[in-house]
Amino acid sequence: MPIFVWLLLAWDAVTGRRPLVRGAEEQARVDGETSTLALYHFQACPYCRKVRRDVRLLGIGVEMRDIKREPARREELVAGGGKKQVPCLRIMGADGAVRWLYESREITRYLTERFGPGGS
Ligand SMILES: N[C@@H](CCC(=O)N[C@@H](CS)C(=O)NCC(=O)O)C(=O)O
Q: What is the pLDDT of residue 2?
């Protein structure tokens, strides 16, 4: 990974706002819900970086699937979502139906509406 990416990641870690904090019961409920999500990304992608930061600030655990480190993940993404663009959020509904959400803004909007302060 290029040095500037390391610097940007370190900058985020040092200057970032504090993640949302929940009570243990609420966090356990949220963790159960986020276990059905996976983010396809790669480290140096600036759009992915922003979504990863938002995930951290929302205090949620989302499985990270790096398409550069794991080529099988890239294949999954293309087969399921239809294109190899990242970031992409894989969302599995309660009925098992899978939705592939592209576009960093849409992903952040979705996660914030669901898990942000006052979210559903
Ligand atoms: N508008 C998109 C841009 C995402 C984007 O350009 N991602 C790049 C990596 S930084 C990518 O996946 N390019 C490969 C492709 O589009 O096939 C967003 O905000 O998510």
A: 80
The structure's pTM equals: 0.88
Q: Is 81 in the pocket of ligand 1 (CB under 6 A)?
A: no
Q: Which helix (H) or strand (E) holds 38?
A: strand 37-41
Alpha-helix runs per DSSP H in 1-120? 3-15, 24-34, 46-57, 71-81, 104-115
- Characterise 59 by phi-psi region: left (phi > 0), alpha (psi -120 to 50), beta (else): left
Contact 22, 59 (CB under 8 A): yes
Query: 42 is written with which tokens?
Result: 């790669």
Fold of 24-115: Glutaredoxin (3.40.30)
Give the ligand 1 atom nearest the CA of 85: 12
Ligand 1 nearest-atom number relative to CA 105: 19
Contact 54/111 with Cβ under 8 angstroms? yes
Which tokens sit at 79? 């087969």
What is the per-residue pLDDT across 62-120, written as a single tens digit (0 to 9) for each? 999 999 999 999 999 999 999 999 999 999 999 999 999 999 999 999 999 999 987 65
